[in-house]
Design goal:
The chain has about 180 residues and is an all-alpha fold. The chain is about 60% helix and about 0% strand. The chain starts with a helix and ends in a 38-residue tail after the last helix. It comes from Lactuca sativa.
């Protein structure tokens, strides 16, 4: 990151994130601290605060995991998102079997992975999450290598679309040869 502008933008983003976290911590402290509170009561208040919404959080995270799709993510990023949600579920006491993770992984793939998804579905037993990630990463590299590069914009000098501008005169006949008369 040698560009000072990029460095400055990243620094500003980190400062904003730090302030958000500091505000959240301050709000939390005001919620749990009471005059003459003991460390034991503070701990119990914290535990109660974080465990109160445990079941709702499990439902929310399970839904996020179940509905996660590849979209525009790379296979690596997609698997990382799954791992983050899996870890959050594990941390609050909800175990997700690896076979379920593999099922969610396969079901969330985009259509360009249909062939490999079919192959993965028919494994008995299903591959591990790590093995599926490896297979899908290789397939992604193969697909990306074989995709033709397309320009982002089609209105450029080497565009396949041709604009024909000319004077249309009713007395002359023109052909598809750029307005030139055919040899007679």
């Amino acid at each position: 990151m040698n560009n000072p502008i990029e460095w400055n933008v990243e620094l500003q983003e980190r400062i904003v994130e730090f302030r958000k976290q500091a505000n959240a911590i301050a709000e939390l402290i005001f919620m749990i601290l009471k005059p003459s509170a003991t460390s034991h009561s503070i701990w119990n208040n914290l535990e109660t605060l974080f465990r109160d919404n445990k079941q709702a959080r499990i439902i929310e995270l399970d839904h996020d995991l179940h509905t996660l799709t590849l979209g525009d993510l790379s296979i690596s990023d997609y698997c990382e998102c799954m791992k983050v949600i899996f870890d959050l579920l594990t941390n609050i006491g909800s175990q997700v079997p690896e076979q379920t993770l593999v099922t969610y992984l396969i079901n969330g793939l985009s259509p360009k992975f249909d062939n490999i998804a079919t192959m993965l579905r028919h494994q008995d037993p299903l591959h591990s999450l790590l093995k599926c990630r490896s297979i899908l990463s290789l397939e992604e590299r193969t697909i990306n290598r074989n995709l033709p590069t397309q320009p982002l914009y089609m209105d450029h000098a080497s565009s396949p679309t041709v604009l024909h501008v000319g004077n249309h005169n009713q007395n002359t006949t023109s052909s598809s040869c750029g307005g030139r008369q055919p040899n007679q």
